[in-house]
Fold this protein.
Amino acid sequence: MSDQMTPMAAGEADSLARKAGRLRSKLPYLVVLVLAVLGVAYTSITGSPLYGYWEFLALAVGAACVFIGWRQTDDKRARKQIVVTQVLHWMAFLIAMNIVLWPSVNTFLNGPATGLALMLLLALGTFVAGVHVSAEIAILGVALALTVPAIAWLKKSALLIALIGLVIGGLAVLFRPQSTNNDAT
């Protein structure tokens, strides 16, 4: 066997490397989306919001916006404007998130509603920041916003989804192909 790669194998390796590179570049967005969903899930299950968690996520997205905006320009004045704009933008959303968490406001919301409200604020902040910085950040904001009604629907429909899963599982067990053993005589 030769250690040389065939042209087809080399092309497949290049394609795989490009796909891995694209996935790696999208990984931070996926991580933020997963962390936001986990934050809502925790708040829904326990009934109490994670007070520092949402601020951390907002600061992480804000830092990503500054980093992405910084890379997009070489102009010192434009970089300063990106930093100032993003700091003010995310401070406003952090204040709004903290207002939702104030005891006098939070008494009107149950745990799941608090988690969804915080996620919606994070989604809105992310989308608006993305409009000014990067289409990918804006798409992340849209994805975060779309998860809010999806989570609400899943929570409302959890029993129905579980029943459908049980029926499908039961049917799969009932109608699974039987293996035949021809060796036994």
User: Anything to note?
Assistant: The chain has one domain: 19-174. The mean pLDDT is 80. The helical segments are 7-46, 51-72, 76-101, 103-106, 111-133, 135-156, 158-174.
